[in-house]
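Morning F.,

Quick status update on the modeling queue. The single chain you submitted on Monday has been processed. Sequence for confirmation:
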Amino acid sequence: MKYFSTRGGNERLSFEDAVLTGLAPNGGLYIPETIPSLPQDWQTKWSNYSFQELSHAVLSLFISPTEISPSDLQSLIEKSYQSFRSEEVTPTIKLTKDDGKDLFVLELWHGPTFAFKDVALQLLGNLFEFFLKRRNEKLRQEKEAKGEKLSETEKHKLTVLGATSGDTGSAAIYGLRNKENISIFILHPKGRVSPIQEAQMTTVLDSNVHNVAVKATFDDCQDIVKALFSDKEFNNTHKLGAINSINWARILAQTVYYFLSYFSVQRQLSASSSSPREIQFVVPTGNFGDVLAGYYAKRMGLPITKLGIGTNENDILARFWRSGRYEKVGEQSQGENNATNPVLGSSDGKQATTSAGGVKETLSPAMDILVSSNFERLLWYLAYEDAAGSDNQRREEAGSTLDRWMSAVKSDGRVVLPTSVLELARKDFVAERVSDEETIETIQKYFSSKSNPYVVDPHTAVGLAAAEKIASNAGISDTTTQIVLSTAHPAKFSEAVSRALKNESNFDFEGEVLPGEFKGLLDCPRRVIEVEKPETELVKRVIDRVAEEARTIPSTSAINASI
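Structure tokens below.
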């Protein structure tokens, strides 16, 4: 299996090189040359597999055994999920609503940082370490054959660079802390992540972890990361690796829980009904990575109906599925002042914007994103399906088309896609927008349920509200069962949850919701580097300086600083 860029070109990479490279030199994202089909006996053979066993089965379809042996892959998987608090890793629970209908929730937050991103980032951190150790061992043997020793400066190393709107940062840090020959720099928008999210990142004091707080939006941080990856000289100097969901390994790791949940729900349904049911997954999403994993599972052969997308008021995806326009700000918002007041649980300060294209601050801050990076991967498949000619001709045309579309988004802030492309997108997806008011109402509704009182975080609430809208507006059949992905533990957004449930006399956040791991976290020592403006050169200086300090005093930890 080889991997190539969504924006074309002749480059073909191994799985290892695609993972270590992250972002293609031409700005595209890596995707597999083919999407493998499931084995003929997968439904019977895999039906009672554990998460770890399913992970091995699915990943083996995309990773050649000559790259990672089956035994090494199994060891990597076991190591990655041994710290999860649930034996199932990602359990699926049934909620019976007050109208008597069943709804399932796929809980993805049982990892070390209580967020869905742990599922992929624990594995990705171990993959990084595995590949580097193997490369350095080969280099050591080559040096020894010449009667030489491998010096520290000659070793293969990796500088992992990422941007976060909240959960990616802490999950990446926990996945890479104290990893040999790896340093990690995480950019976050200062004052625009929840207090718990910020504390989870900045209280990790391992010497290879560097938090960079930029006075900017998440999209600014993400643009800086992309600019640094596109800077060939800087990239070659620091050997950059991607931790954001632009890294293919993250998408691949996340496909596994769609299979696990599918089997879990089928078992639960068969125990109560003999009638076969369709399965629909509904995913709260901002950067499109989580729902894209479901798309790959569907393309592989998982028998599910249209994937549901839930967006908050930063609704670029919902607007695309409505109009075919992929644009940073909708026509109805042109000229509006998008600056908003602080929202409990999402920010400590006002998120002012200077143009009509600004991010709206919402109760679900991890989804406060203008442009969904992973959407580019789906667009490639849509462009390919819309093209004519041989397979090679369609691939070449899809790459050229993607390059043109993404250039338009960058320069003009929008691209209008052909109706034929929109219709292709509507075959596999349906999308709904959820407001902050609806988010609050949904948190209240599920907590006050007479059948199954359940506390959800605001992102999960977006998914639940979107599921109800999809069931109503899209007219799904009575034989369809919905599974909503729950992406974060409610304690990660405590102020938003507490605000929604402040009038509920039986709500006990400290006693029933707050995990022991969070108690006292806000008071722990922190280490963070502040950058005053969203300028790529300023971040480059931070990375250059830290790298120089590491060369001169290898055991040093970067001190608090501002640039």
